[in-house]
Amino acid sequence: MQPTAINADRLAGLVTIDWADGHQSQYSAVSLRWLCPCAFCRGEAGTPGWLDSMPTLTPEQTQLVAVRLVGTYAIAPTWADGHDTGFYTFEAMRRSCPCASCAAETAQSTATTQPE
Length: 116
Ligand SMILES: [Zn+2]
Ligand SMILES: [Zn+2]
Prior knowledge:
The protein is of the alpha+beta class.
């Protein structure tokens, strides 16, 4: 799924993506920060990431400074604390769409794919 438009409103702290199928996803900066997929935040090779420790995020850590495109497959936000290593693929973004209908679908699929 490809976006047709990506709009980052830094003042409002909102990122809006229009998708090729007409769907629109809107992410708050805070929820986006929690989704950061980088090795530091998410951990790697079985090691828990920083976000797994449920840190208290500072205002800087959830303030969008910029959002840049990475090739044709991802966006990379820069946060006010300087963090910019998270590449959010469009696929992952669409999967994390917080709207009611997508959230319902995600809840179903994680329920069936999550190991005990
Ligand atoms: Zn990160
Ligand atoms: Zn959605």
